[in-house]
Each structure stands twice: as C-alpha cells, then as structure tokens.
Amino acid sequence: MINGVQSGKARQMSIEMLDRVGLKDRHDNFPSQLSGGESARVGVARALVAGKKLILADEPTGNLDRENSRNLMSLILELQKEFRFSMVIVTHDMELASLVHRRNQMAGGKLQPI
Known about the structure:
This protein is an alpha+beta fold and 114 residues long. It has helices at 7-20, 36-49, 66-83, 94-97, and strands at 54-58, 86-90, 104-107, 110-113. It is built from 4 helices and 4 strands; from the N terminus they run H-H-E-H-E-H-E-E. The protein has a two-stranded parallel ribbon with strand order 1-2. It has a two-stranded antiparallel ribbon with strand order 3-4. The longest helix has 18 residues, at 66-83. The protein is globular, with a radius of gyration of 15 Å. The chain starts with 6 loop residues before the first helix and ends with a strand.
C-alpha cells in the first residue's frame, strides 16, 4: 500500500502521470539522473498522484533556463486546470509571476496584492 492505494495501482498511476508530464521513458531513472526541469516535473507528478489539492512551490523554475522555465509553467498551468488544484508559487521572476491570475508581493513584512 502506498498512500492508501495498492502498490500495483500506485505504480500504474505514477507511470501514467509521468507520461502526462513528458517523462514516461524516465520512470526507472534515479533522481541524480534527471535534469533540473525533469526533477521539477517529477515533483508536480508526485503531488498529483498523491491527490494533493494544494502545491507549494519555492522557485520552481529557479534552476532552469528561460525556455524550460516557460515550458514548465505552461505544463503546471495546464495541469492545474485539468486536476483543479491550488498552487502557491514563491518567485523573484516577475515574468513568471505574470502568468498566474493572482499575485501578491511581500513588502515590509506584509503580503500585499500587486
């Protein structure tokens, strides 16, 4: 049992979600064998397989180049619509922040809408 799901079913769900995030052929790889972008996508897939309704992401694209950052955010926003989860993203990248529908800024110790 994994998170209340039979291990065979959990494995199948994991492989399906890895396929959904573009990593079907990497399901037997170890974390050290994945790129930064692949690791980020695995994190999203793991949260969705676990049925999380809230994902907290601290600089999810921080280790990625511009193109891979945009690709990852496009994927996350697409999955968010499909699986209906909430996400809190912490970032210094204002271009990335502009992709979400609600933005806040920490200023003077207070969270304020921007």
